[in-house]
Backbone:
């Protein structure tokens, strides 16, 4: 598999480490050269014609800046920064371009679980609730100012994005899986009893109810949980393996 990465940072490094020689050749675009075993194309964006797939491993802004160019190339596109699709105008233009493109777009599950359940429940899904608990300091609160969990936000995905943009990818990935942003509710709590972020996903449907608790550990870049790049590795493996589960 020949891969072009948008971004040469932490996520790309982990993908290269985990896939090893399954990647026959790779290139990456970034604003500066990184210390990774991949060919740097420079800081002028273009998509190498030999690449089989394009993998975004950079940011929401990178998806919005280069995403439509990827579709015009006809290459399959893996998007880890799903938060780009919270921008309704960008999503409209992206979907319009995709209609006439030979590209397929894949959004890995990222730092959240339950995506397979939500997708399987199409036609039966009722609601999805994302409850994120963080230490008080994450909300700019003094750790000693509260003695029990306090709700600091409850509302829609769009409202959550405006108030807590750092959680944009998790909320949007759930909404994309649900195929309806209005079915997803987000709740944020400051919890003085914890030292790391905890995501709880509650899924309600006419055929069953499900609850997942995720206590992610950070990757070498503390802003990214380790699960996010590993989900990208798993998605790329599905492309090259002959026996696929899930």
Residues:
């Amino acid at each position: 598999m020949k891969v072009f990465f948008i971004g040469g940072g932490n996520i790309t490094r982990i993908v290269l480490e985990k896939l090893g020689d399954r990647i026959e050749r790779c290139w990456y675009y970034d604003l500066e050269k990184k210390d990774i075993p991949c060919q740097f194309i420079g800081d002028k964006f273009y998509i190498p014609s030999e690449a089989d797939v394009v993998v975004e491993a950079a940011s929401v802004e990178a998806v919005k800046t280069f995403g439509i160019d990827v579709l015009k190339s006809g290459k399959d596109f893996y998007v880890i920064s799903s938060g780009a699709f919270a921008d309704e105008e960008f999503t409209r233009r992206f979907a319009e371009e995709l209609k006439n493109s030979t590209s397929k777009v894949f959004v890995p599950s990222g730092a959240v679980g339950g995506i397979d359940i939500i997708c399987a429940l199409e036609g039966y899904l009722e609601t999805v609730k994302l409850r994120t608990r963080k230490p008080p300091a994450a909300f700019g609160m003094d750790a000693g100012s509260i003695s029990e969990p306090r709700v600091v936000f409850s509302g829609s995905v769009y409202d959550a994005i405006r108030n807590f943009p750092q959680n944009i990818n998790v909320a949007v990935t759930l909404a994309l899986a649900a195929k309806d942003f209005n079915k997803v509710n987000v709740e944020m709590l400051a919890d003085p009893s914890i030292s790391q972020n905890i995501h709880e996903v509650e899924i309600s449907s006419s055929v069953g109810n499900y609850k997942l608790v995720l206590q992610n550990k950070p990757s070498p870049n503390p802003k990214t949980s380790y699960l996010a790049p590993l989900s990208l590795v798993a998605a790329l493996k599905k492309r090259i393996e002959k026996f696929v589960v899930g």
Observations:
- DSSP finds seven helices and eleven strands in the chain.
- The CA atoms of residues 3 and 26 lie 5 Å apart.
